[in-house]
C-alpha cells in the first residue's frame, strides 16, 4: 500500500519585505510529495506566480511529473505581481524594472535559500515566465548569470529594448533557454501596442543562438493565452528537470 502522505503536496504562502521595491511581495511555494527538509531540491522560480499556479496548473503538473514520470522532486517558487504595475516591473522600459530585478536576485533568492533546502547552483535553478515574464526572466539571467542560466519562456515579449540588450552580449554559451510561441500570436494587442510575437521570438532566438546560447525553440498552433501555455508546461519542465 502507498503511504498517502508521500502523495501529498503542500503549497505555502509567504511574504517578504523588499527594500528595493519598498513594499511587501507575496510568494507561493510548492513543496513536492514526500518533501523532506533534510534533503535538497532543484528550484523553479516563476514570474506571475499566481497565474502559474491558478491558470498554468503548475503544481498539478509537478505532482504528475514526480509521481507518474519519475522526475526528481523539485520546489516551485511563484513570485506574485500586482497586474496594475506588471509592465512597470517586467518591461525594460518600466520605472520599477531595475528595482524588480534587484529584489528578485538579491532578496527573493536569498530568502528562499535561507528557508528551504534548495540547491544553490545555477544549474539547479530554472526561471519561468510567460509574455513579459519570459523577457524579464532573460534580463534576470543576463544581469545575474551567476544565479540564473536556465529559462522557460512561454511566448516571451521580446520587445526592441530586450533585443538590443541581448545583441550587446558577446558570449551566451552558458545560457539554456526553452522557447515556445503560438503561430496565432502574430498580431497581439498589449497595453503598449500591437506586436507580432512570432517575429519577436524568432529574432530573439537568432540573437541568442548567434551568441552561443543553447536554444530549444518551438512554434505551434496557439494563441497568447494560458490555455496554450498550460499544455506546454510539462514538456518545458521536463526539458530541464529530467
UniProtKB/TrEMBL annotation:
Gene3D superfamilies tied to this protein? alpha/beta hydrolase (3.40.50.1820)
* Family matches, as Pfam families: Esterase
User: Would you tell me the protein name for this molecule?
Assistant: Putative esterase
Q: Which organism is it from?
A: Paenibacillus algicola
